[in-house]
Amino acid sequence: MSENPTHPLGSAPRISDFNRSVVDEFRANGGKVGGLFEGGNLLLLTTTGAKSGRWQTSLLGYVRDGDRLLVVASAGGAPRHPAWYHNVIANPLVRVEVGTEIFEAVAVPAQGAERDRLFAHVVEREPGYGDYQAGTRRRIPVVVLDRVHADVGGREVNNLADKLMEIHDWLRDQLTRTRAEADGYFAARQVAGGPPPVGLGMQIRQHCLAFCQSLHFHHTSEDGHMLPGLERQYPDLAPVIGRLRAEHVTVDRIRRELEELLADVDTADPVRFRAELDRMTAELTAHLAYEEESLIPLLAGVPFPPGGPAA
User: Fold this and answer.
1) Which of 57, 128, 174, 229 shows the smallest number of beta carbons within 10 Å?
2) Other CB atoms closer than 10 Å to residue 76's CB: what's the count?
3) CA distances in angstroms from 120 to 75, 93, 134, 282, listed in the order given
4) Which superfamily is assigned to 160-299 in CATH?
5) In percent, how much of the chain has pLDDT > 90?
6) For residue 20, how many other CB atoms are within 10 A of its CB?
7) What region holds the Hemerythrin-like domain (predicted)?
8) Which residue has the higher pLDDT, 7 or 19?
9) Rounded to an integer, what distance in angstroms lies between the CA atom of residue 290 and that of residue 296?
10) In the prediction, which pLDDT does 1 show?
């Protein structure tokens, strides 16, 4: 990935004027900065704006909990949640920069007793967060950054065909994970005779929304860049590209329906939820297979990243 990641739609992330120089220093020095933040555990969290849809990069402190990274929506003890927190509720798929490492993650706010345990863990290591909580009536959220493993198949990426397959492998893996989490969630809800333990609903909501978000980005990117380029270079592909675009519309409609179900997952109808997920799985699986059959032979000769060696 690049050191200065951009949104899949092509826009550069917004950085506040206050943080810009520190962000530049962070990236230039492998995550180390001086001045006010010297010696702190810092990361860059890039989120998609809940209202604007633009990527925004925030400089945040973090605490480790085993292999997990925790960020706290303290806003310095302000009475309202920071903007980045509203962003991850609406769009859970985020990009994280720690040191020289850049990766995608799903942001999941901790709930109930788990939130309290993690907040105590954070305060033990960074007592200032306890002062922030003492100064506001707001219950300050703790957000777990659940790392996304994009290299599901361990595929080496040398050309655009490899990159497309990497994305498709990840989407298939996320579909499998989403179904498994949904089944586990609804089973727990049935045993409990109502909503399952606090936190499970938020977890499945965030992971499902992250899948929907990544699917939307993927298809929007294809419609805006890859397909028009192929259309110009290979006019005979017009019927294939027309079918792919039509399928994108169908899959996007199902995605929106699934997002509507997630609006209140604690009371979502399990039968309808699974039926929508099954329908999306069947149509998306068929779509990915058709796209691979139609485009992989052509894309195998296009280097990735641009300028790299062709396969």
Assistant:
1) 229
2) 10
3) 18, 26, 13, 44
4) nmb1532 protein domain like (1.20.120.520)
5) 45
6) 13
7) 161-299
8) 19
9) 10
10) 33
221/227 Cα distance (integer angstroms): 9
Distance CA 226, CA 64 (A): 39
Residue 100 has pLDDT above 70, yes or no: yes
Q: What class is the 14-147 domain?
A: mainly beta
The residue behind tokens 């954070």 is 122
Least confidently predicted of 98-102, 200-204, 245-249 = 200-204
Question: Tokens 């949104």 — which residue?
Answer: 7
DSSP letter assigned to residue 39: T
Tally helices (H) and strands (E) across the chain: 9, 8
| C-alpha to C-alpha distance for 109 and 92, rounded to whole angstroms | 10
H or E element that contains 200: helix 200-221
Task: Give the pairing of strands 14-15 and 55-61.
Answer: parallel
Which residue do the tokens 């990236």 mark? 27
**Residue where the block lists tokens 């990159």:** 163
Residues in the chain: 311
Longest Cα separation, the chain: 66
What is residue 149's predicted lDDT score, i.e. its pLDDT?
Answer: 65
What lies within 8 Å, CB to CB, of 83 at 6+ separation is 49, 50, 56
Which of 93, 230, 248 has the alpha carbon at shortest distance from 161? Answer: 230
pTM, to two decimals: 0.81
pLDDT over 80 (residue 159): yes
Q: Which of 7-16, 71-80, 213-222, 241-250 has the lowest mean pLDDT?
A: 7-16
First to last CA, the chain: 20
Which tokens go with 109?
């706010």
Q: Where are the domains of the chain?
A: 14-147, 160-299
Residues 119-144 pLDDT 10s: 999 999 999 999 999 999 999 999 99
